[in-house]
Structure formats: C-alpha cells, structure tokens
C-alpha cells in the first residue's frame, strides 16, 4: 500500500461540489423564507 502524503490529493472537484451545495442551500433558504412571508401575508 502506498504511503499517504498529507496535502497531495487533488480536491478541486470536492471544492466545486461544496460551492454548488452552498449556492443551492442559499437559494433554497431564500425560497422557503419567501413562501413563509407569502403565507403570513395571505393569512392576515
């Protein structure tokens, strides 16, 4: 088995995936907040 060398793995794809996840989570949160505001105003 090869000896592991810390910091040598290419993590570019991991970083791109995580950035996409964070972007998606931000949009999803904005949509949920928008829906909650709409429901609060429609029920008034």
TrEMBL record:
SUPFAM superfamilies: Bacterial aa3 type cytochrome c oxidase subunit IV (SSF81469). The keyword Nucleotide-binding does not apply. Residues 4-43 form the Cytochrome c oxidase subunit IV bacterial aa3 type domain. This is Aa3-type cytochrome c oxidase subunit IV. The chain crosses the membrane at residues 21-42. Pfam families: COX4_pro_2. The keyword Ribonucleoprotein does not apply. InterPro entries: Cyt-C_aa3_sf, Cyt_c_oxidase_su4_bac-aa3. Keywords: Membrane, Transmembrane, Transmembrane helix.
């Amino acid at each position: 088995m090869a000896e592991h060398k810390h910091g040598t793995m290419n993590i570019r794809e991991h970083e791109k995936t995580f950035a996409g996840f964070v972007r998606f989570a931000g949009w999803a949160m904005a949509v949920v907040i928008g829906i909650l505001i709409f429901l609060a105003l429609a029920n008034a």
